[in-house]
Amino acid sequence: MRLGLYLNLYGTDGERPQLADAVEQARLAEQAGFEWVVLGERHLHRPGYHEILTSMTWLAAHTSTIGIATAGIVAPLYQPVVLAETLAHLDVLSGGRVTAGFVLGYRPEEFALYGVTQRERVARFEECLEIVTRLWTSESVTYEGRFTSLQDAYLSPRPVQSPRPRLWNGGRVSAVLERTARTCDGWTTSFNELDADLPGKIAEYLGYPRGSGTLGAEVILCREGFAAPTSQDARKALEEPLRDLYDAYTGWKRTSADASRYTQGWDDIVDRSVIGSSAECAERIAHYEEMGADGIILRVQPPGMSQTDALRAIEAFGELNA
What is the CATH architecture assignment of 2-172+185-201+217-320? Predict the structure, then answer.
């Protein structure tokens, strides 16, 4: 099973955020055989949150072979040409290690910050992905869209990967699954997606027609993850910082239909995660592989967890996936 490590990019109260811990984790994940380090995006977070594209650049410069992926970039917030050019150059700088995962976004504050009308987010998302894909794969692009017009546009250099870097899209409703099959190469789940719902959603996603030029239909699960000598050790290290993160999510996701999932009990969280002893985590990974997952992105370190605990868990996952 291909594993990804979702990196904690949060700052802490009273100090500027530091990327040194994320670099240390990324290097250990590379040594441990992880497929990707994975970054998310957030804005208007008072203690601090590292900007996603510059963080990708920093991590690419401090690693050698591990993939640099996102889950995901809030595509409607971006001018598509700038995004295409930046990600293409990141692929060049990293030697072809970029996977670009996108999401629609859900926070009204973030759309207001970028001057984007939230009701336009689907149209902006689709236009952005079309422009990005065409600029990555075409010698010249002329395009007349709702938000962007291009005349004989091109990128130089284009991405290293041929025909282009892979594209992921995250979301859970049918419209997102259909759009992912039509425009992207892989579907990323939410971290709180219930196991009981996954077989149906995987089957639905795989059942939609693939769009012209797509590169497959990967299923990438995002799961809370922590491996320790015992399940009690895992709970001791993870529960308090994860609860704090979930408390924050109930505010961030007040406009989202899945906000209630962040108030569930510990057993409910474990039932949809890869948490416990190494043996229990191996069983959970095998369970998701049987379900049809091609990869699992593990969020090992919520804000507030010590670096020592996070590194131990990364190393344990590397050993059981060897």
Answer: Alpha-Beta Barrel (3.20)
